[in-house]
Specification:
The protein has 206 residues and is an alpha/beta fold. It has a single domain, classed as Aldolase class I (TIM Barrel), CATH 3.20.20. It is built from six helices and nine strands; from the N terminus they run βββαβαββαβαβαβα. Strands 3-1-2-4-5-6-7-8-9 form a nine-stranded mixed β-sheet. Strand 7, helix 4 and strand 8 form a beta-alpha-beta unit. Helix 1 runs parallel beside helix 2.
Length: 206
């Protein structure tokens, strides 16, 4: 798997853009998004299925990606996917760090961690659980909720992260109206959790 190979100086880039983080702990903050193509999870509710097939996208120089991030003026880069840990991200992160850019990662945690990160958001999926060691690296645990089974999965995942990890339940967007009352009720009764909303979708921004 690419994540175990030497530093990736070219990466399959699905898209890159400067926007506002819409989910989790850093909601509302500006960030430059680097969305890599390729995914091994295949969630049926995924809102970026266009990223799944990495072969659809050209390999782009990590130096060019960093150049674009620097030119945007953003102080933070969020690397997401797809599943970004399919690739070795050491070189990308080192290059961003040389330009004094904070690095945030969004991952399912199913592959070995690479790169140097200021923040790691782990979004574990029950049908493809994270590597055990990646739970301990998470600054933020974000679990997507469709059913009560997902709430049970969230509680199991909570036991594996650090005590200082921020805990979020996020409604699956396509059924937001039907699932949000259950999540609100659950969080009121289980106060270690907070609710993450996809505010970028309410604002109609990428």
């Amino acid at each position: 798997m690419a994540g175990s190979e030497k530093e990736a100086k070219k990466l399959p880039l699905a898209e890159e853009f400067y926007s506002i983080q819409g989910e989790g702990f850093h909601s509302g903050k500006p960030a430059y998004f680097i969305r890599l193509a390729g995914c091994n999870i295949g969630c049926k509710w995924c809102d970026t299925p266009f990223t799944w097939d990495a072969a659809r996208y050209p390999l782009v120089s990590a130096d060019e990606i960093v150049k674009n991030a620097v030119a945007s003026g953003a102080g933070t880069v969020i690397v997401t996917g797809g599943e970004p840990l399919l690739y070795n991200l050491d070189y990308l992160c080192e290059s961003l760090k040389r330009n004094n850019i904070c690095t945030y990662l969004e991952t399912s945690g199913t592959y070995r961690l690479s790169g140097v990160w200021d923040w790691i958001c782990l979004s574990p999926k029950p049908h493809r659980p994270p590597l055990p060691e990646n739970y301990r690296m998470a600054d933020e645990l974000k679990v997507i909720i469709q059913t009560d089974d997902d709430l049970h999965w969230a509680e199991k995942s909570k036991l594996l992260v650090r005590d200082d990890c921020h805990l979020y339940l996020q409604p699956e967007w396509s059924i937001f109206e039907s699932v949000i009352p259950r999540i609100v009720s659950y969080v009121k009764q289980n106060q270690t959790w907070k609710i993450s909303l996809q505010i970028h979708k309410f604002m109609n921004i990428p």
